[in-house]
Amino acid sequence: MVDVLVIGGGNAALCAALMAREAGASVLVVEASPREWRGGNSQHTRNLRCMHDAPQDVLIDAYPEEEYWQDLLKVTGGITDEHLARLTIRASSTCRDWMRRHGVHFQPPLSGALHVARTNAFFMGGGKALVNAYFRSAEKLGVQVRYDTPVVSVELDGDRFVAVRTTKGERIEAKSCVLAAGGFESNREWLREAWGQNERGEWPSDNFLIRGTRFNEGMLLKHMIDAGADSIGDPTQAHMVAIDARAPLYDGGICTRIDCVSLGVVVNREGQRFYDEGEDFWPKCYAIWGRLVAQQPGQIGYSIIDQKAIGRFMPPVFPGTTANTLAELARKLGLPEQAFVKTVEDYNAACRPGSFDHTALDDCATSGLAPAKTHWARPINTAPFYGYTLKPGVTFTYLGLKVNDRAAVHFGGRPSPNLFVAGEMMAGNVLGKGYTAGVGMAIGTAFGRIAGTQAAAAARKVEHATA
């Protein structure tokens, strides 16, 4: 019997496996995907949000705990567990040396990379390089890894973990277990159930694209909730980004994001604006736009900029629709021409002169317009004009299992002695809603490492009890 069983193959799972192995436990990792698709959503990540009180290697200036906490508090609207959030924040300041020991390399942020040079450490080679480094290190340390092995149920004795069963009917026992199998974002049926129908008779989730892995179907999460594990979070809340409508259904990753929203206006299919595009810096608000687009007719939106914006944002992979007049752009995008042109002209007329600075919360705002644009408001009046069609892109869902600071799964408020959870399956404890760049990796790294350490300790207790 293995000491620690880790279910999942992303960042949180691998952090747990490595920590458990470093603590002397024998470890088995079971991953639902085939080897070539291993890594879960972590393969699509780029960076880790890090607290630091002074400049550190690839991080400039300082990003102290209180500022990090205030940023998280703002994007979640207060729907967060402060104790667990601060634990995550503090852990983010000390994990990079450990990551480097396991083969992860960091690089300075790219020019124009979402204003996160101060707050986020970027992985050399991105998330795929990170998970590959962790897998190499795990295998070198003797961690067993099995692919194509989805786990569908957990056998419990009260609140104590006993074994799991796979889709093949196999039963795997272990002295302790870490659940790190992701959310349910690629389970179309569950998304439909969570989002339901809107007042227009639409099923919004039918138009969602999944930015990450197709293997996060939430089977294990659903089983645990049905088995009486304490849950947390709203099933409709998720890290949702407005992405290129031409993106693939799964695994589009970072390259499908459209980052010019704050430099122009966004309209729905009726040609109407519906939210403040300049509310805050893009890394702090980009993840609300998927949900905003999901609430629009047809779950579709259009990001509109002009020539002045070009060069001020990370360019998307696919070129946008271009036109020499606003009327021509409306026709090419299939928008109602008169309504669209009026929307943009009304916006242009409402823009007040200011000192435009996209690196600061500047004083370029609209006046007398609803919704207002509170920063970076400049008339869209310089041809050529560009339009990007947007759809909601789900990264991961926030419904998860309730935990304490030892990453233990709870049953009726009581923590399990040998069942732990990390990553997306518990991120809702910290992220009740909203998102800020790199915090998902911070949560997964912090709680993956905690879960692995605790699982190894729990396995030792079982060993001593049976000796």
Automatic annotation (TrEMBL):
InterPro entries: CobZ (IPR012831), FAD-dep_OxRdtase_2_FAD-bd (IPR003953), FAD-oxidoreductase_2 (IPR050315), FAD/NAD-bd_sf (IPR036188), Succ_DH/fumarate_Rdtase_cat_sf (IPR027477). Its cofactor is FAD. GO terms for molecular function: oxidoreductase activity. The keyword Repeat does not apply. It comes from Rhodoferax sediminis. Keywords: FAD, Flavoprotein, Oxidoreductase. It comes from the Bacteria. Residues 3-430 form the FAD-dependent oxidoreductase 2 FAD-binding domain. The gene is tcuA. SUPFAM superfamilies: FAD/NAD(P)-binding domain (SSF51905), Succinate dehydrogenase/fumarate reductase flavoprotein, catalytic domain (SSF56425). This is FAD-dependent tricarballylate dehydrogenase TcuA.
